[in-house]
Structure formats: structure tokens, C-alpha cells
Amino acid sequence: MKGDIKIGRFFGIDLKLHFSWWLIALLLAWVLATNFFPTFYPELSTKQHWAVAIVSALLLFVSVILHELSHSFVARKKGIHVHSITLFFFGGVADIESENMKPMDEFLMAIAGPLFSFFLAGVFALIFQNTTNSLFINAISFYLFQLNLVLGIFNMVPGYPLDGGRAFRAILHWYYKDLRKATRIASYVGKFFALFLIFSGIVQVITGAFSGIWLILIGFFLHFVAGLSYEQVIFYDVLSRWEVSKFQQKAKSSMMISGNINLKKFIQDNLANKHKLFIVKKGSSPDAIVDLTSLQSIRGADLEKFKISDIAIPLKKLGTLTPDQTAYTAFKKFLATKSHVLVVKKTLDSPKIEGLVFKEQVMNALVRRLKFGVDFPHSKLSGMNPVLTTQLAHQESLKQKKSKKGKTKNKVTKKKVTKKKLNSKKSSSKNSRIKRDTDILGLPKGLPVPKKPKK
Ligand SMILES: [Zn+2]
Asked: For residue 436, how far is its CA from the centre of ligand 1 (angstroms)?
């Protein structure tokens, strides 16, 4: 995520803070110091209220980390990879490799977090009941008992992507043996719950309780994530059926070129070439790749000054696949490397290139499958290379612009470029990493909080 700060590493898992957390930590401390603690502990001074508020906010932060770590702990026990944990505005997100998970594993992993929150609530309840001599500890444990309880209960709501929703989905998955159906039902419940939160928030705001805004925000967020998570499951469902070898375009000898060729000459010679991509040799072995769409980055420069090797991408920088991996692995590597081509090799460390896989082809196949139910189509590249054509047209238009002629031609090229830019924006908006386990944190005034018991 953008704006993440790494704050440490626990058990091999990166712990990150999203910038929105700071905002909420400050807001929380302020609400606690000026509202919550003065109401329940009027005997403490203002300074003491602030001290208690800050310590409580920090301990809440630790509670959320422990909740996330308990998910991760179970995941690791089941041999599932955990990338990182990020704390943000609404709670925490553990980035866990979630494909191919057995229903039982998913169930245990999902309930581990809320169970630990309930355990923490119990611990703080005990501390609260047994500290009569220190108001300070009494106040902190009172607050943390409530918040951990709320955290546990809220996340056990059976709407996907909340923990309870994941557990519910795992049960449905086990029952129906159909992950897509299970996710659809669980995310419907999630969306319904989200709408309920939004509605309750609106009612609260209308009746003068502005803390309802928090519920509305959480509701919208949940609704959004529920839809997104379902989409990811569908992608997985479709793409994991296809092997990389189906998409692989064989590396042909006609695609092999030398790095010393002049770029302008190369473009002119290859206007009608159906290949978009060429393999640059170093000696007899492949060393880099020339991606014709990368020519856009040197738009306007004098092509004659460039050699092929100047715009080549070293093979080391590209993601590698093996033919037996799934298209879903390819999809994730496209997102991770932000590249639109991946290299296929027999084994990951083999020096020889077997072929190439293009993002466009994988995405086309996915869209056709989802929209029209067509199973694995082969899209043929057209004879004229659109990238090269645009590039040359632009060069031409620059010359004409200089001599104050041909304004219309330039416009046409610009239109093409904007269209392309839009397309690339569309694909990059899907670049977010696949996230799972979104935990939502209820704020003290957002949800009904139990009353302080009388002693
Ligand atoms: Zn959780």
C-alpha cells in the first residue's frame, strides 16, 4: 500500500503502519482524553486523562497487532505464507497467500483472530476487577476490555471479508465444494451487513450523534472490499484452470536480434512485423528483451541516436514462469512486476528462454471467459504493429509541427496516445496486491459500549 512505514519484523512477518493509522490514533487519544475518561473517571485530572488516553490508544494498537499475528500464526502453522501485516485507518490487514486453502485451514485461521481478542478482553476484565488501588490501571483495563470485546464480536459477524465471514465461507466451501459459490453467499452477507452499518450510521447522524459517520465510513469500506474480494476469487477460479503453456508464445529465431542495431532503422524495418517483442542476444544466449511499447517513454527524442541495447530490459528484471504454472500465478506476477510480459523457462533458473507470455492475452482470455463463457481463445496479433505506427506517426508530426504544418495529423496521434494512456491506467488500477483478512476496529463511540459495572 502507498504510505506504509515498516515498523518492524516479527516472526519473519513485516509489520507496517499505514499513514491513516496516525490520524486515527490521534483522534482516538483525543476522544478518550476529552470525552470517554472524563465521563467514567471524573476523579482524575485533565493531565491524567491524557496520560490514560495515550497509553490506552497504544495498548489498543498492540491488541490489534496481536489479533493479526494470531491469524498469521495459524497460517504459518498450516504452511501458508504471510507477507506482511499493515495497520491502517479501520484496523489491520494481514497479507496472506490465500489460494488453494483447505476449508478447515481457512476456518481455523479466520477464527484465531477474534478468539485472541476475546482472550485479551478476558485478561483486561480480570485486571480491571482486581485493581482497586490504582485508578490509572483500572481505567486503562476498563477501556481495553471493552475494545477487545468489540473487536472480537464485530469481526465475528458472518459477512465476508470479516473474520466471521471467512469462517462462514470456509464452512460453505466445505459443504458445497465450490469456492465461488461460497464466496458469493458470504460476500452477500458482508454487503448486507455493510448496508446495515451505513443505514444505522445515517440514523445516528440524523438523531444528532455524529459518531454515526464512523459507521457510515466502515460500511462503505466493507461494501467495497466485499465486492473486490469476490472478484479476486473469480479471477482465481478462472485463471487457475489454465496452464502457462497455453498462453506461451514460442521464442522464435526471427525474434532474436543484436543490441547494436540503430533504433530508427529497426522500427522502419519492422513496421509490418507481427512481433511486439524481441529478444536481444549477448553472444549466443538471450540477455534482454526489447519491448516496443516502451518506445513511448522516449517519445519525441531523436530515434537515430539510440541503439536497441539502450531500450532493452535485462532478463533479470522480468518475472519468470514455468510452463506448468497456472495463469493465476502469471496474473499475480504481472501485477507484482508491473510488466506486461513474462519469460517462460523450463525451470526458473534455466538460461534458455522457452517463450513469452503477454499480459494482454491473459487478460483477454479472462474477460472472454467471464463475459461470454468462451474457454481459452487464441488472440492473434494483427499484422501492423500499432505501437510502431503510433511512434513513427508522432515523430512525423513533430517534424511537421516544427515547420508549422500538419496540425491535424498531430491531433490524431495525440488522441491515440491519450487512449493508450487511459488503457494503461485502467490496468494499473488493478495493481493492488491481493489482500486478505481485513479486520475492522470499532471506535468507542461508534458501537454500543457496555456500561461500567458498579462496584
Ligand atoms: Zn481478524
From this structure: 10
C-alpha angle 252-257-258 in degrees, rounded to nearest 5: 150
How far, in Å, are 80, 230, 246, 273 from residue 262 at the CA level? 49, 48, 34, 17
Pairwise CA distance, residues 397 & 444, whole Å = 62
Residue 307 has what DSSP assignment?
A: B
Asked if residue 216 and residue 297 are part of one domain, the reply reads no
Distance 62 CA to ligand 1 centre (A): 14
In the chain, % helix, strand, coil (3-state, to 5) comes to 60, 15, 25
Residues 19-58: tens digit of each pLDDT = 778 888 888 888 888 888 888 888 888 898 999 999 998 8
Span from the CA of 205 to the centroid of ligand 1 (angstroms): 28
Whether 443 maps to a domain, the answer reads no
Q: Decide if 403 is inside a domain.
A: yes
Both 260 and 301 in a single domain? yes
Domain span including residue 101: 4-241
> What are the pLDDT digits (tens) for 92-151?
777 776 666 789 998 999 999 999 999 999 999 999 988 877 888 888 899 999 999 998
Residues 51 and 77 in one domain: yes
Distance (Å) of CA 100 to CA 72, 79, 112, 329:
16, 12, 19, 12
Centre of ligand 1 from the C-alpha of residue 453, in Å? 28
For 14, which DSSP code? E
Residues 47 and 174 placed together within one structural domain of the fold: yes
State how many domains the chain has. Answer: 2
Contact present, 324 and 245 (Cβ < 8 Å):
yes
Residues 138 and 181 reside in one and the same domain: yes
- In a domain, residue 189? The reply is yes
| Ligand 1 centre distance from Cα of residue 193 (Å) | 17
Q: What is the pLDDT of residue 125?
A: 94
Same domain for 202 and 345, yes or no, is no
What are the residues whose beta carbon lies below 5 Å from ligand 1 (ion)? 113, 163, 439
**Residue 130 counted as domain residue:** yes
pTM over 0.70: no
